[in-house]
Each structure stands twice: as structure tokens, then as C-alpha cells.
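Risk mitigation, structural track. In case the binding assays with 5'-deoxyadenosine fail to produce interpretable data, a predicted complex structure has been prepared as a fallback.
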Amino acid sequence: MSERDRQLEYMEKAKGYVAKFAEELGRRPTCCVTTFGCQMNARDSEKLVGILKTIGYEIIEEENADFVIYNTCTVRDNANQKVYGRLGVLNGYKKKNPRMKIALCGCMMQEPTVIEKIRTSYGFVDLIFGTHNIFKFAELLVAVFEDQGMVIDIWKDTDQIVEDLPVERKYPFKSGINIMFGCNNFCSYCIVPYVRGRERSRDPRDIIREIEGLVADGVVEIMLLGQNVNSYGKNLDEPITFATLLQEVEKIEGLKRIRFMTSHPKDLSDELIDVMKHSTKICRHLHLPLQSGSTKILTAMNRRYTKEQYMELVQKIRREIPDIAITTDIIVGFPGETMEDVEETLDVIRKVKYDNAFTFIYSKRTGTPAAVMENQVSEEDVKRGFDKVLKLVQETAKEQVSRYQGQIVEVLVEEVDESDSSMVTGRMSNNTLVHFPGGRELVGQLFKVSLDECHGFYYIGHKV
Ligand code: 5AD
Ligand code: SF4
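Fallback model:
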């Protein structure tokens, strides 16, 4: 029997338990899936929701539910602290509703110290699993329904990719889609390779089939997801490049927009730039993490490019695709970083002029090479550098975003504004947000919109 069929059997079994629970409660049991972290986790959560819905739960947003699952992130320590803090609140809910079940999964659970801490100090948790066995969720749920104790199932790694399990998309018109899992880069600050395992690419035929299915189901925009999409396909039995995959995806009829995340500068090929340049569907947006502008720090980070190589790459991209928006990630306070190094980062920001940049304070992750580097930067110096970087990023982004003022662009409407129901929010191809008058019926459709007023990071416009 295939793994997929096994899991479908477990879903049937779980359905029985949930139905019985519903009978006892006199209503459908509720569940809440809370997601921390990146787009990968968001996609994983859609898989969790797909299974929970299939077996009979009603999905709600409140955490005071019959079943709560946290899909965690551990890329920086503040994400971990948030989980511990909120677990205390969940414990309060569980005291009032003793039949409540609490589950934890995601990157944080791949750390042995975390498991130990939960086992000893958070005994009210019912289920823990990691990033490699999420396809087993139905089976693990059955174990929870049949057992009384804490169920823990963590795998160190896997080469298994289980296709075609239920997925419940957050948005009907757009979807993330995994093209690869894991990362082999081992940037010295990063915990991802340890918690997400080695790089594995999905078969391109499975990817295309999944996207075709999504498009038939109303999806117009997809985001191809991987920690390092530029090395997609290198280790397949029949190797293929990411650029070739994009060309195949482009051919899918009915699909309107293609995005992807994340690109490593060291692997971004001329072939990819060329494919993007000639594409009508690939969005005019490239997320190109810089991390630092100092070659000395980049070397210590094991990024495998220099400041100059990064700048050359950006220039090439801008030359070939002038209307592209480039966004980035920057870390301030990596061990050994001096004010001169921060100046190098500021220099890159000034020259590249990012449309948006996510700035992070370096967070020491146990088990990574950087954690044991000696020259950790003082909190005070980090703060000084961070404020400088943030200020410049905001100034340059404002300038970049404002260059579209007065233009008419295509916008995909994503939702009705929370604060004003006479307005909708959508995204330009380059990922900039646009608000304009309209109602719920516009959601999921593309419109030509005039960009009337630039408000820093977003536009107010009107449909033309
Ligand atoms: N400390 C701070 N930021 C980090 N990132 C990854 N690891 C760390 C860390 N230890 C940032 C990088 C990456 C983004 C997803 O998170 O900038 O691109
Ligand atoms: Fe982490 Fe580097 Fe891999 Fe990105 S490329 S996930 S920063 S190790």
C-alpha cells in the first residue's frame, strides 16, 4: 500500500473518532491552526487544515478551541519565546476544557532541547511532531485519540515526499507550492539546514500536475517555494534547472502569475534572468537576501559571494529587467561585525535601493557554527547598527516604491480592507500593495488600477 493510501485510511479512522466526539459535544468540534514563520510553514499549515477539515473539524481563528496546533518557527529566538509564552495561555484554556487537545509541530520541534523542555515543563501538550513527517498527521491524530499520554514523533531527516494529500488553501485564488524541501547551504548563522534537513527536489511532473489541478480549482497566482529555489532539480535522477521548470510552469493555461521564494545570490543563473525577462507571467519581483554588505562578514557567514559579486548581479538584473522590484533580508550584529562592516551594508542599500528589506538582529542559534564564534557583538552596538540600517532601508524603499506614481498597473485583488469595507487590497506584479475602492466581488481578479497616491510602502488608487 502506498504511504498516501495508508494516510487516507487513518483519515477515515480519525473521522470516526471526531464524529463520536461531536456526538458527545452535541456540536462539531472546533480547531485552530496557528502559524509562525515563513511561507513554507504557511503552506504546511494548509496541509494540516486540509486533514483536520477532512476528518470533521470546524476550522476557527480563536485558540479557545477543542484542538489547537502551533506550527512553529525557530529561525530566530524570539519566535521560540513567543511559543512558550502562548503555551501558558493555552494551558489556561485546557483547564477549563479538559478534553481540549494541544499539538506542536514545525521547525522548533526538530531541536532536541525544545522537546526536552516541553516534556518536562509543558506536560499538557498532547502531540509533538516535526517537519519531516507532517504527511503522517492523520496517523498521529489517531494515536492521540487512542492514547492518553503525550505522543512524540520526530524524524531526523527523510527522503520521502508524499504527494496528493488533502490541502485547504487560505486563499482560493492563490497558492504556495513546494518545489523542494531542505537546504544544503549551511550559512553559519542559520538553523534551517538542521531542522529542515538536506535538499530534496520534487519531480517536475508532480509539480506541474499539482499546479494544473490548482488552476482548474480557480488559482491564478502561484508561489514556488524552496529555501534555495536556484538549486532546484540539481539532484534529480533527470536533472533540470529552475529556469527550465519556470518555462514549463509558464505554459500552464489559465495561470496568470508566477512568484518564487527564495533565491540565493550565489546560484542565480543568467538563464534564470533571461527566462524572467521574456516571461509574461513571472512577477517583476526578486527576493535576493543580502544578509551583509561586508565581504569579511559574508565570508564568515559562509554565503559564498562577495559584496562586489552581489552588486554585479543586481546590476545585471536591473539592466535586463528594469521594472523589477528587488527585496532583501539583512542581518545586523553577526559575530565580529564592526561599524565599518555596517557601513558596507549601508553602502549596498544606498546603491541597490531595495523596494523592501527585512532587517533582523542576529540571533544566536545553538548548534550553528556562528553560535560558538568568539567575538559576539554587544547589544548596544547591534542596536546602533540596526537603527541605521532600518532608517536607510525605509528611506530608500520609500523612494523606490514612489517611482510608479501615476502609472496604470495590473493588480490582483486579495481581500477587502479590514478597516474600510468600501476598499480592497491587492498586489502589483512587483509585490507592492495597492488599495482602491471596491467590494468583495473583486477578490481573486486582476484589474488595471491607476496609482494615484503613494503612501510610503503602498498606493491608493482607482480602477480604470
Ligand atoms: N539570526 C537573525 N536572522 C536570521 N535569519 C536566518 N537565521 C538568522 C539568525 N540566526 C534571517 C536571514 C534569512 C531570513 C529568513 O532570516 O536573513 O534570510
Ligand atoms: Fe539558511 Fe542560508 Fe539555507 Fe537560507 S540559504 S535557509 S539562510 S542556510
